[in-house]
Amino acid sequence: MVRQGFELGKALVGPGERIIVDVPLPGLYTETTVNMPVHVLHGRREGPTLFVSAAVHGDEINGVETVRRLLLQPQLKKLRGTLLVVPIVNVFGFHNQSRYLPDRRDLNRSFPGREQGSLAARLAHIFLSDVVMRADFGIDLHTAAIHRDNLPQIRADMSLETLGPLAKAFGAPVLIHSAPPEGSLRHSAASENVPILVYEAGEALRFDEVSIRIGLRGIVNVMRELGMISLKRKSPKPSAVLRSTTWVRASSSGLARMVAKLGDVVSKGDVLAYVGDAGGDDEEPIAAPLSGVIIGRANLPLVYEGEAIFHIGRTRQASLLEEHMDALHDGDQFSLPELVEEPEIV
Ligand SMILES: [Zn+2]
To answer: How many Cβ atoms from other residues are within 10 Å of residue 96's Cβ?
Structure first.
């Protein structure tokens, strides 16, 4: 039986076709029209529909490069099912190099949105109804906020039966079992029975080669797990699962000298940073309040009292993480013979 076409807006994408559908958004006040391009790849054969989105936060550009490389993968010619790729969801924030929308709202706290709501609510509504609700599963790509860095990590509600195997298949160094915050895409998508993985890696307004490559490999791994592409390759290294995470905050304002790096496994009491003033030598150590792994870190040495400097996750699987970190350092992680290789961004 011939597979039916996939309709999006006014477009009908036939089996075996890939096209870019421009979904109309509210325009700029300069009378400039604005669209959200959605790449629709409709396989010849039946299979699940997966969406992959980036730049829900407009300054988180790492995921945009990740999906650009995804769209070049030759395996997509033999796709089963349908792949919807949205390289830039928050077109407005991306233009302004800003996490937020011009109305200063956070798109990832504006879901499910409303057709007649604020600019953020309208964009959330359009993305949710035109893309997310058309899919069976999703992967949403993020980075840490500006001046912060995240160890590549998957965040997922592992209690969702269908999501656990996909979260594991991704193969990120760290997997965090967490409930999504109210208003987030992940929360609204789960309410619509579209389970999604959030991949967090790297820093806003930067390309980070390690994060891009782990992200690309992870998406391909999930597509293989879903049967959308066939690829002979080793199963990914198991992720270290974190059941809870804690922020470590500066106890005073000043200049921070960071000691701990992303991916470090630390013990309770280890010094993570020293905070002092510009002139003196009166430095205060910031110690780890618990044993765990550093999954997020501030990069800017200027800190206020109370500012979150380190994000630590508790895990009983530190050795798994250490294996991942060793692989990152020896470069093996990045030999992707089945994938299109590109020169590294340095
Ligand atoms: Zn984000």
So the answer is: 13
